[in-house]
Specification:
- This protein is about 50% helix and about 5% strand.
- It is built from twelve helices and four strands, in the order E-H-H-H-E-E-E-H-H-H-H-H-H-H-H-H.
- Helix 1 (about 10-35) packs parallel to helix 11 and helix 11 runs antiparallel to helix 12 (about 260-290).
- The longest helix has about 35 residues, at about 260-290.
- It starts with 5 loop residues before the first strand and ends with a helix.
- This is 3-methyladenine DNA glycosylase.
Length: about 290
């Protein structure tokens, strides 16, 4: 059994686990119901498809490294049966950090290096969310079955009149072939450490990805915080996109106008501040794991 710095009594960890489940059910329950009905959602499905964590795994609460879960009257915590957990002779369950690192150390180091590199840079806020526009520029088909707010010609005109400044590879790789040459940068997987910056909406959403990639070492509260922020960021991402989502209840951010650009940048800066706090907490988890 690994060393435990903090021992949680059963009444505390069961309450925290229940609170976590109730919190994320706000998003996972509607997603499961849409999936049961064969329905899609152009905004929120992204959080369960592009981000591949299964809803049932998102609902699992984890205590994080160095935290032991005391047994309840019913026996050890259910974590005892989960991967990378160990149980001592008294029934206390905790993350087996050594076993976890034996398989996941390279991932922990990569995530820590990427998060630290991103945190070291100032937030760039001059992209105005035009990555989504570049993904449909001169496109014969669209990624979502949703009409374009300005039509194809109007959308193309916005892209051609702008300076595209996307720093995020996983957004850039979805640009249409005609839009690739319009971007001022050429992000690649190899340059990710050098280019990712905290003003990028996708880098902020990706905090959720890195949190679940580190699972089960990330405390459930931190994972849920990252997911909740990703939901808000995704909504802005699509409100500022060329898609017309008003019938879904999303008021557009008109980034083709000066007022819309200002609205987008203000929200982007707010997300960068909130993302910085979550990024620091994730770095702390990595440092705790790596000693």
């Amino acid at each position: 059994m690994p060393a435990v710095a903090v021992l949680l009594p059963a009444e505390e960890w069961t309450a925290r686990a229940a609170a976590h489940d109730a919190r994320v059910e706000r998003w996972t329950a509607p997603h499961r119901e849409r999936r049961r009905r064969g329905q899609t959602h152009p905004v929120l499905d992204f959080l369960f498809t592009y981000y591949s964590e299964a809803p049932n795994r998102l609902r699992r609460w984890h205590p994080g490294p160095g935290v032991g879960l005391a047994p309840s009257p019913a026996g050890p915590a259910p974590h005892a049966a989960w991967r990378w957990y160990a149980t001592d002779g008294d029934g206390t369950v905790g993350l087996d950090v050594a076993a976890y690192l034996a398989e996941r150390a390279d991932t922990v180091r990569f995530v820590r290096d990427l998060l630290a590199a991103t945190a070291s840079r100032p937030a760039a806020t001059g992209c105005f969310g035009l990555h989504e526009w570049a993904m449909v520029y001169r496109a014969g088909e669209r990624r979502h079955a949703v009409p374009l707010r300005l039509g194809q010609e109007g959308t193309d005109a916005v892209v051609e009149a702008a300076q595209i400044r996307c720093t995020h590879y996983d957004a850039f790789r979805f640009f249409t072939p005609d839009a690739v040459g319009l971007n001022r940068l050429r992000p690649t997987r190899e340059t990710q450490l050098a280019l990712e910056q905290p003003g990028c909406l996708h880098a902020t959403m990706d905090l959720y990805k890195w949190a679940y990639k580190l699972s089960p070492a990330v405390p459930g509260e931190l994972l849920a915080d990252c997911f909740a922020l990703a939901v808000e960021v995704r909504e802005l991402d699509m409100r500022a996109s060329p898609y017309d989502l008003r019938d879904r209840g999303y008021v557009p951010v008109l980034v083709e106008t000066a007022e819309g650009k200002a609205e987008y940048v203000a929200a982007q800066r707010g997300f960068a501040v909130r993302g910085a706090e979550l990024r620091a907490r994730l770095i702390e988890v990595c440092d705790s794991l790596l000693g």
